[in-house]
Amino acid sequence: MTYKSIFKGRLEFGSPKSFDKVRTMYQSRVENYYKNDVLINEEEVFDASSSSFVIPRLITPSTSQKTWKNTVGLLAYISQYAVAGEFGGWLIDNGTIISHKTIEPNSDRAAVQAFLKGRALVEEKGKQDEAIVELTKAINKFDRHALAYERRGRVNHILKNYQDALYDYTKSIDLNPSNTAPYFGRGLIHRKNGDIEKAIEDFNLAIKTSIPLQSIYWQAHRRKALCHLETGDYAGAFNNLKFYSKRKFKPGDANQAWQPFATFHYGRALLAAKNYTEAVDVFKQVEAMPTEVEAVDPAEILYYKALALKKSGKNGYRKDAMQAAKMGYTKASDLLASD
Question: Which domains are seen in the chain, by residue range?
Fold first, then answer.
């Protein structure tokens, strides 16, 4: 049996001396402990210029779960000598996640402990100022701490310190261009500031630096689509809405609750593209979906389904239009009056 393994992340060792020590231990462990049964090629991941271990994205076949476990164990081993960073690993069998691991430093080093403490305080109500203090400590201890800058940016975002948030997100990106979260966060700030083009660019980068197995990948698709929708650009939003509406999210994934909204606007994008028959089918799907957040007005769904039916030359549009009109949707009344 052949599995697919995915690895993505970066570990920082802080100095050339620490980097050389870890690289030597890595080589020894691969040869003597794992007998070279690992999935990562050492020559491609150690970056002496930044004293780091970097995999922007690695997708590779694996013939056994043992090889996957060896590789995860190896990453966990060297992570404890890192001053900052994080790794994600996924083992996939025919599209199903068999195993997922997040690997990060958890040593007694001051930068590590300050970051972990600050990160834990980020979302805790009333603790944001304390979070900034701890995250700033982590940055002061290790000034290339991309994750600490990103989390501090998130805190500043929560506190509506938008300029400070932009600085932190941008600094994080400069230090680690492969990390997704700061692109996403900066995109939210740009959208809030009305810089839609910049927001779209950042959400695009968030999509490119993440993978479909990550929730943030789909959040970025939705946010990018919203930017296009705000300017009436259904063509620009088309693929983002299509991918999002057709994705099968696992129960509990927050993205699932947004599918009615995305699917409805995908129907509208199909209308704009004159794919009327397919639009009818999509609006019918929306009618059958439970809504939790950003619920679409049922009258609006009926109206656009009626419009798609009419434009596709099918019968039955008047029934939907009349029902929408009874619900107070003015455009439905106009549609009926246009006959």
Answer: 3-103 (3.30.70), 108-179 (1.25.40.10)
